[in-house]
Amino acid sequence: MVEAEMRAPRADATRNRDQLLAVATRVFGSADAEPSMRAIAREAGVGIATLYRHFPTRESLVDAVYRDQVARLTTGARELLGQLPPAAAMRRWMDLFGDWIATKNGMLDTLLAMIESGEIAHAQTRAELLAAITTILDASRAAGDLRSDITAEDIAASLIGIFTVAPRPEHEAKASRLLNLLMDGLRPTAATLSARGL
Asked: Cα dist. 141→2, 79, 94, 195 in Å?
């Protein structure tokens, strides 16, 4: 009984932290300017002390949100391939990438300072995201539903361009249209299929 009672607060604390993380991600993703810690606590329906108990500094909160989003992108590639055909998985992953970009924009000042100081390894994040894209591209090549000459770097550069000119959430419809056009360009043409003997 004592052991169970000792475990309960830890489970509660984890659940509370996860809830605060989800709210912070949503607030960062929809903010025009970097929101205050007080605004995030208010949105979560908790006191500022509760937020600081889980995330003692703004940097610790930004770091947690950033790493959580990157993990969602990297594991998301495999999960989507388990649920959808490769081309559909790629299109859905692009939406996840857009969510990540929107979230980053809401915490950009702090994030850039942390990258500058070395607290966040930008090169490692880039490598992880390119590996996630490659996972989907490899499956797509095997299925024959995307062009074989596309690289992960091509996809990443295209997505950054799209979400720069059509940032979400305010330009959701435009971003979606551009992503669909990108997908059209990624599909094999009759000429490429013929060259592959298909």
From this structure: 55, 18, 18, 14
Q: What is the mean pLDDT of the chain?
A: 87
The model's pLDDT over 121-164, given as tens digits with 9 standing for 90+, comes to 888 899 999 999 999 999 998 999 999 999 999 999 999 999 99
How much is the pLDDT for 190?
55
Does residue 8 have a pLDDT over 70? no
d(CA 15, CA 60): 17
Own/partner long-range contacts of 31-36 (Cβ < 8 Å, ≥24 apart): 31/106, 34/106, 34/107, 34/108, 34/109, 34/110, 35/106
Residue with tokens 């770091």: 63
Q: In whole angstroms, give the CA distance from residue 136 to residue 133.
A: 5
